[in-house]
């Protein structure tokens, strides 16, 4: 890894790191601070989600080698969609020139240059008054025995008539801990179940991982209002559109707390902005994409946990596992017959056909901890193939929904393929810090289950 990094760094250097002092070398004040301020300090600030700040010369210099390797290897800023994806709104991607600048600056020993007060980019969002604010009903202190605590909270949104949401903001209570938030809309039938779970273990909310854990048919990602990750405020749906929430529905907010910082009571808040019904917003629909998950243990690893029955027994969504085969025209045998090599690259896919003409505005994708890569494409295998989302290196912590810069036309009869790749070769760190050994993976919401789920947000 190291060697590769320096080869890459050398290459970038040779390509010409520019934008700096008279001798051609970039300095902190001239060239580096503006990049860090624009692309990094949103998270790398005192009290932010990142483990150290990058908003001062002192820290930037101290972290220079780490900065160079993180940007050269594409780990930072976190932005999962790869080059093959269409251009997305709010892309957090550094230009090759910016990467070259940071790398050559670090290699030159991180010179400061002539001191200037680097101007921080102003916060572009204009404060608006939300139409509805719903906070977690009580503060929750994440479980400090865990590395990652996934917790669901039923928000009292009290929406008694059909409402069009135009956008939302998340205000994390503890921004060092709150690593992602998923908002699920649940129908009236699931609200009772949510109430029963809420607080059942003596603490606010209930434990949940890949979904709201309220049983099959509830609050799947198909009904997700949205995702939030640090470094953003929230989402505004494309102009003239909105997401309709039916009367009597409620919002379940799933919060992922990462406990690399000390646990403190958190009371994260959701702010909703409604569309004016008179403006007749177009209702955002979601075409759901899913592929079977039949991921086997690597060769040489066996035992009860490597059996499908064991996995199904523990899944809350057992019926989904078989249902998706019906939907995709596949059988379990198709998967069991395959040669999986060393188990580190197990692919699955499924095709769907577009039922009516429309316009695609965005995409979302969801896998769990064993996910390795994911792709959603329109008309695969034809000359007109268009990739809608390509995530070459899946990272559960940075999953989300993406909105295209340019809407993409959908025609009745178009094919859409979702394909997911899993790595089930070795043990990986689990949320409680203990290793998760390979086991059979099938559909479920747990940390040892998987999903291959995507969606296309579109309007008629
Ligand atoms: C959206 C939030 C976010 C943004 C934007 C961001 N970081 Fe980070 N950064 C993190 C978090 C969180 C971590 C802790 C490790 C992790 O969770 O991936 C981290 C870790 C790091 C690390 C140490 C770990 C590693 O992978 O090397 C470096 C170095 C780093 N960031 C540099 C940067 C630089 C340079 C930028 C801007 C070009 C940047 N980050 C932008 C959130 C962010």
Automatic annotation (TrEMBL):
UniProt signal peptide: 1-21
Gene Ontology MF terms in the entry: copper ion binding; electron transfer activity; heme binding; oxidoreductase activity, acting on paired donors, with incorporation or reduction of molecular oxygen, reduced ascorbate as one donor, and incorporation of one atom of oxygen
InterPro entries per UniProt: Cu2_ascorb_mOase-like_C, Cu2_ascorb_mOase_N_sf, Cyt_c-like_dom, Cyt_c-like_dom_sf, PHM/PNGase_F_dom_sf
Alphabetical UniProt keywords: Disulfide bond, Heme, Iron, Metal-binding, Signal
Gene3D superfamilies noted in UniProt: 2.60.120.230, Copper type II, ascorbate-dependent monooxygenase, N-terminal domain
UniProt name for this protein: Cytochrome c domain-containing protein
Organism: Calidithermus roseus
Keyword Transport: no
Domain Cytochrome c: 19-110
